[in-house]
Amino acid sequence: MHGEQKKAGGQMKSSDKKASAIDAASPAPQEAVTAKSLLIGWANQQDAWVRHLVSEVVISGKAMTDGQLNAIYQTFLAEKALVSGPPVNVPKLSDDTSLLDVSSGLFLTQLRDLKNVNALTEGQVIDFNPRLTIVFGENACGKTGYVRVLKKAAAVRTTETVLPDVSQTQHTKQPPSAHIAFRLGQEKPQELEWTDQAGLAPFNRIDVFDSRATALHVDGDLNYMYTPGELARFPLVQQGIEGVRNRLERDVSDRTQTSNPFLPQFDRQSRIYPLIDSLGAATDLAQLKTLSTVSDAEKQGMPTLKAEVEALQTTNPAAQLKLAETVKQHLDALLKSLSTVGRFDVAKYAKSLERLQKAQQRYEKATQESFAGLPIPGLLREEWRRFIQSSLRAFTAGPLQDRSTLNLKRLVRFLAQRNPTPALSGA
Q: Which of 258, 257, 198, 249 is nearest to 65 (CA)?
């Protein structure tokens, strides 16, 4: 019997070995494939900035804010060596349920230093309990003011504008601000300054349900579309990638000048616009300088045009009155000119012009006859005429005592006898 027991014991050990071999040969159970695991697996095959984006979406489950997208864009620039500094190291993501556990949750710890928020008294502090915090008080004592700050920081659907104290006589231009202390999981407490941003990470992970949210969900006809939470992350990731791409394209556009920077400063209907549009090495700069010259008439018309433009841009009665006065001044000047033209006697002007022409003819004839046959150099030329005219001016200006004066007087008397005129006769 003892031998049978040994034999039986030997057979049992053999069967145990076979069972162990079968267990070793059988494949290990595979983990369940979920939308979240697929997203994380895809992100781990991408660049670091993509993992950064996906990690934010997985944790918050909401669309990226501008601040988060700016941080992800900086990760992209550092990774591609487009900015100075070492690249940001983003570790591989893990499909661990701890991402959704309380251990990595967001806990508010304190709200303090509220400034320019409704009529709240500065210096008040709210310390949040890790489990439940109840704020109570009379109506209009400021409870909702604290909630407005958290709603704005979380960028919920029922976000309200945070206004300063309307009872103050002098309204400040500073934005509302506050300091919000928080803790992520078991990490050390942190603190961020909120300056009226909508969706300040990580506070955009907060949801708010109040009376406004109740009205949003129960009033009117609402059409609901259900999307599983894990599937909702895919369009959020796509939106985040589009946001990074838009920032990159904007930076490229700002650094690449592809159009003429001067065109927006000129009217398309102006004659100089085609020249500016085709500005290049073959452009005639002299022509541009000529077109840029402002005439005196254009300068005189500038005040009128300026007054007209100001009157069109505003409904201020003072500007319109100024324009009317300017127009009246121009009309008065035009009326004066027309009155002068109306009093002009055309027939009398024609007779005077005819007498002037005859007098000039007689003068020319008398001059030629008076000096005919005299050996005087340059006689009757322009130089001679200027000499005679200057001599007459010197003679009439005052007494002359030398011999040249006597000779000049004799010349004048001779001319007066041959061609009497009022001026020479008086001499």
A: 198
